[in-house]
Amino acid sequence: MALQYDLIALDVDGTLLTDDHQLTSKTREAVREAADRGAGIVLCTGRAPVSVFPVLEELGLSGTIITHNGGATVDSDTRKIIHQYEIAPQQLEPFVAYCRTNGVHFDVNTAFEMMVESLTPELTDMYSKFHAAPSILGRGATIPEGLVKFTVFGDKELMDHVQEDWEKWPPSLLTIRSGDFFIDVHHPEASKGRALQQFALSQGIDRNRILAIGNYFNDISMLEFAGCGIAMGNSPDGVKEAADVVGRSNAEDGVAHALREFAWS
């Protein structure tokens, strides 16, 4: 059976993994089969590199990963940054002030380090599910240099409210909903789609030979760039509308089914 795509871009949370952050054997086997058939596999995620490495290991893969929603592209073998979009600390000052005033939890991220002002047991548990262990800066700390992403976390109602407020602000930075409980802020040129385009160009791969699979609003740019963009069945309507195909959910091994239906024939 002939391989239909040379590069397969996969979102991680809500796509490759189940809602309880597990990689099923069916999905792992399908991704491995695609790689064994010769497809390049690139994970494209809002996670930091250190939170992606365990997933890569479980898949038995290595190579380039697109992290922080395209904010940093990293070589997983050498742990070197291939490209990153930095945010100037002063650009984040209004977001930090808003969070401190309204009691919204946030973290700040360089390519490899995550930092918070404080942690609770609930937050520690949340981060551990993503293989993340943030360092504590302390309340009122100065915003560090070299950041690629700023993320806020809270219940869906709170995140809806924050999103509504921030959408009224001048667009100096890009704010994007990366999950029901998360909003990410990064450089306006950073996106999964742009990072995927840069990587494809470096590999000499035509966009029509790229298959992308995702489930949330931060995946739309790569779904639209790829020759075939597949939205998971658990995606919001806006994501489904941006995709070429809507597949099964992450609770139904949607990635495995999509790969076996579209990646080779």
TrEMBL record:
<protein>
    <recommendedName>
        <fullName>Cof subfamily of IIB subfamily of haloacid dehalogenase superfamily/HAD-superfamily hydrolase, subfamily IIB</fullName>
    </recommendedName>
</protein>
<dbReference type="InterPro" id="IPR036412">
    <property type="entry name" value="HAD-like_sf"/>
</dbReference>
<dbReference type="GO" id="GO:0000287">
    <property type="term" value="F:magnesium ion binding"/>
</dbReference>
<dbReference type="Pfam" id="PF08282">
    <property type="entry name" value="Hydrolase_3"/>
</dbReference>
<dbReference type="InterPro" id="IPR000150">
    <property type="entry name" value="Cof"/>
</dbReference>
<dbReference type="GO" id="GO:0005829">
    <property type="term" value="C:cytosol"/>
</dbReference>
<dbReference type="InterPro" id="IPR023214">
    <property type="entry name" value="HAD_sf"/>
</dbReference>
<dbReference type="GO" id="GO:0016791">
    <property type="term" value="F:phosphatase activity"/>
</dbReference>
